[in-house]
Structures are given as structure tokens and as C-alpha cells.
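Researcher: Quick one. two chains, 505 residues in total.
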Amino acid sequence: MIKYTNEHEWLRIEGDIVVIGVTPYAAEQLGDVVFVELPDVGKSFSQNDDMAVVESVKAASDVYAPISGEIVEVNDVIVEEPSKVNEDPAGEAWFVKMRVSDSSQLDALMDEAAYKEFLENV
Amino acid sequence: MKTDLKYTPLHPLHLSLGAKMVEFAGYDMPVQYPLGVMKEHLHTRTKAGFFDVSHMGQAFLTTTECALGDEGAHEKIAAAIESMVPGEIRKLKKGGLRYSVFLNEEGGVLDDLMITRPGREDLQGMLYLVVNAAMKARDFALIQEKLAGRATLKIADDRSLLALQGPAASDALEKMVPGVSSQTFMTMRPYEWAGVPLIISRCGYTGEDGFEISVPNSHAEEFARLLLSHRAVEAIGLGARDSLRLEAGLCLYGHDLTAETSPVEGNIKFAIGKRRRQEGGFPGAERIQRELSEGPSRLRVGVLPEGRAPAREGTVIQSVDGESIGVITSGGFGPTSGCPVAMGYVTAPFMDTGTEVHLMVRGKAMPARIADMPFAPHNYFRG
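Model:
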């Protein structure tokens, strides 16, 4: 199941692990990504904490933790090749995998239909 | 969208090209086109980029101490403008242009500008000025105040300004305006294009060969569309304009140069004429002459981060011992360099190329070095 935040992140739920990335809309808004900084594995975040940094030619943007939890894996592919974030934001360019600490936070996020509607009103 | 935004005559063209628009200096301007900042930057370095810079301030300054074309008319208008800038304007060749700066009484930079001496005999005593969009209202008011009784200023808001930059710029423009390809760097010539008077200067702000074309507003869009129809030419937004000028080591006023920084500190000593260094006679001459002889206490330098994280404007520069020694004034990713590039001010002991410093990015000290500029070599056409 895929969920979305109003900060344009997607979360693919795989049991108590979620894979987190940014949506194609976010990738387009960021512009050409040239640098990605990801958190260390083992680090814990509360929902809405600054979790990662994405920089384009133009500017730096923070990526927020969409839920509370602990980082269990990060995607070094996008650190090595930041342009992947523009090429395949919904697939190969996932950011982190997190162990969910409060699954009720997931229930409050948008499903695909709700996110599509949200995008139309951005 | 703010309703009080100003538009250049090319605004409809930008929208039709699918530009992403942002507010800049009170204007609704294209920050990027569908190509995107990275590709726009690289296209300009390898082919030709078209820029709308009509938001910048164009004006003609004319002496009132004698008639245009009179013997000594240029010397009169040169003396007038030299009371505001440290550049050598008196000996500027006919049809030549020069980069200079308006100074305040403390020798701080109020704006940077281009000053052009016309080539035509009957226009001696006139100068063509191009100043920054954000500063133009204040610059023009200051000129009118300082030079009252010596010169009149005619603001050329009936003219648009287009830039064509890159190695293919000369060939592309030659097809529309025969003769421009023989013009050398930092010269201006008047042309007629289908009966429309053009002022074409071989200059720009990307580090590449190129031109700035002043065209009447009435024909700006037609001229721009014809330029863009050339297969080597793409429209380029302000995003790539900024990364191009940063790689070229060129200053952005209000960031790399301010009312607090002198042209010596700003590392633009070339904007101060040799005769003027001796004679003075410009605002803040005392400080500037002292800095020229003793060296400035701080200097604008290139900074190359060793890692891959860009250091943005405002990033604190520390010595390797953790002492604060300066600040980044422009920084980002250089698409041609393929790495982060930056410029900033550091205090005297840390100015030398190769000096190791730390950049404080998100609370962490990132290793970097003081580096020579430009980061991408200049490709000017000197004939």
C-alpha cells in the first residue's frame, strides 16, 4: 500500500517497515538534484523532523520524516547519483527505509486518490 | 501572483515558452524553461543561450556643458561620471565599454554597471549606461542629483535588452545582423535591423563570448523569436544565469558586492583606472587608495568545497582552527565544473589560493580550499 504526505513524499508500507521517497511532483519542483544527504542507519526521528537534505543547482530543501521511526536502510544510489531523484523518484530513487514506531500515523496520511486530488489544488 | 509585479515586453514570450516565473527585482521573470537549470547552463556553455535582461536599467547620459559632438564634449561627460565611479572613462575608446561601480562616500559599492562611449562623432558627450534592475531607480535618482547642471539623464525604458551568450552566439546573431561577428569583446556598435535601430555590445555576464542587444520594445518579441528560431539557440532563465556568472567568478550586486564592500575588497580592482588610482577624485577615494597601497583587510575569493555538498550564501567560513574568518556570498553547484563552487569574503591571512578552510554547513565543518576564479574559463572574443 502506498501513502502520501502533503509535503509530497510517498511511503510504501511493507509490514512494519516503510520505504520513503519523494513524488514526481516534488522532484520536478526541486529541479535538477545535485546533492543528497541521508541520515545514518539507526537514527530515530519524530514525525516532521528534518531527515534528509536535497539540493538542486538553485537551492537546498529539507526532507521531513513523514512518520516517527528508526532508519533501517538508506539508498546510497541517490547519494552517488543524485540525478536519479529526477529520473525515477517513485522507483529506484527511494530515500530511506524506516521501522514505524506509531502505525496510527500512517492512517492519517493520504491514499493515492486523495493525493491526486490534493495535487490538483496545489 | 502579486498584482504589482512589472513585466518586460517579452513576458508573453516567456509564458508561451512554458517558463516557470518568479519575482525578481519587482519583475515577473523566467527562472527556468522546460529544459531546466542544468541543461540550460550547459547549453549556454556549448551552444548559445538567449536571456531576457530587459529588467535592467538602460539610460543615456548627455553633457549639458556643450553641444553633442563639440570638441571636448566627451571629456566633459567623462569628468561628470568620473565623479561617481573610479573607472577610466576619459580615455575609453570610441565605441568601447567598461565595467565600473557607483561608490558611496565610504568607498562602498552602490551598484555595478556598464558604461559605453558611442563611436559616432556626433554623439560624443553622451554615455550609454546599463545598471542592475534592483538598483536602477536609486542609481538614476543619484545620477540626476549628483550631476544636476552638468548632464541630463534619459532613461531608456522604451528599449528592451536581450543577451545572447555562448560559442554559437556570434554565428547565430551574424545571420540576423551581418557584421556583428567582427566586433571584439567590450565594444559597441549601432546597427539597423529591418529599419529598427539596435545597440549591440559584445559583452555579457556568463564568461562566454556573446552579445547584449538593445532593441526598441516594439520589436523586442519579434527579434527574440527570430533569434530563438536558430537551432543553436535556447531560452535561458535566471537560474542558469546565476550559475553561469558564479562559475565565471562574476559578482552579483547585493550579494557579492554591497554598500559595505569596496571594489578592492570585492577583488574588482580592474574597475579602478590607473590614472584614477593616483588622482583620486571619486567617492571614498581615501579608503580605496589606502587599500590599494596597504592591501584590504578582507578579500572576495573563490572557494571550492572538497565534498559534494554545495555551500550557499550566508555559510560561515572558519579557519581549520575553528576561528570565524568570513562568509560565503554566492554558492551553489557548477554544472560545467561538475562540483560545488562558491565565492565569499575572507580576512587577510586566509586569502591565498590553496588555503584550507572549513565551511559550516548544517552545523558541520566541511573542508574547502581558497581557489582561483573563474571556475570555468572565460571565452571572450578579443579579435
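The mean pLDDT of chain B is 97.
Researcher: Thanks, that's what I needed.
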